[in-house]
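Example 397, ligand adenosine monophosphate.
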Amino acid sequence: MNDLLLVINAGSSSIKFSLFENTPSDPTLLYKGQMEGIYVTPHFTAKDASDKKLVDEDLPAELPKSHDTSLRHILKWLDTVTAGRKIGVIGHRVVHGGTRFSKPELVTPEVIVELEKLIPLAPLHEPHNITPIKIMGELLPGVPQVVCFDTAFHSGQPELNQLYALPYELSLKEGIRRYGFHGLSYEYIASVLPQIDTKAAEGRTVVAHLGNGSSMAALLACKGIASTMGFTALEGLPMGTRTGSIDAGVVLHLINHLKMDAKQIEDLLYKQSGLLGLSGISSDMRDLEDSGTVRAKLAIDYFVSKVVREAASLAAALEGFDALVFTAGIGENGADVRLDVCRQLRWLGVEIDEAANKVRSGEPRRISLPDSKIAVYVIPTNEELVIARASRACIAS
Ligand code: AMP
């Protein structure tokens, strides 16, 4: 029976996967896992749906280190646990859909050509999203593949929120415009919001996706109208190792006066900045909270202050908002960050319930006081489920 649905989220050094059962209602998670350190020391972990660890091992050192080897290994392991059941659909996360893709698409040779044209827009991500599509086409020929885009959720933003004040032709001819990312996460939040808060789902919501990569989005009736991320996943909030927004003049200064080349600047902006750059300690919020040094506190305070300022900016785009949603690693687990953000947004009408904020749970929950003008929620995101749902809908249509 071809009743399994495989979701793949591939990066430069890791491949995450989730295997779903394609049940008539919603896809149901069976297994999830990842191959990390693909080109250094490939390490494979897998869990079942209850989070029980089933595998935690290095790949044999003699195997070639590649995405191909990793995907073969994942498929071989899945074969052992699924006892002859077959994968009927494969869904891939693709970071950039450009102006060409604003919804999930069935993979065809033409689609792959179009995806390759988008590589210059996301050179650090797009190639690693495309590679597994080609490999899976060879390993499981005939199994339909669907691509789901992180930019798609934002494609309906008003033009004003998609533009930079560059010569207009650069937007038209070169696609230099604000796309927004983390769309699969926002899509998930938009899909569950109606069951959690009808008023917010029909009204105005600010979602803070705070993780290793962080962004925020303004949702009007669950549709994205503004986002902190733009042309690349570098704009907006500071992140684990990324700067977030900086004056473009800094880049010119780095070139003209510090004589840095493009690769050095790319490394600086993407890999040495953000929480890591400010703290000098770590890109990981937990490490900074545990560290207690002045620089760690500075990094956390900077992060919080930018979340607050972006929330106010998105509030302006929405003319106020009814709900604030925290999601992703820091948003879901970082109670201290949430508390600081909410305290600094008190002037806007946010009244946090400090006891509720401290509760640890994997479930969606309200963390604002009953009379808070703006309702605040923690909603665990589920990008894989969005890909699974979209992939099967795409095949069905
Ligand atoms: P993500 O990219 O969504 O997996 O999020 C990763 C980020 O979430 C890292 O900065 C982690 O330190 C952070 N994180 C995870 N758990 C906690 C926690 N309990 N408190 C604060 N930050 C956390």
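Summary: The domain at 4-149 is CATH 3.30.420.40 (Nucleotidyltransferase; domain 5).
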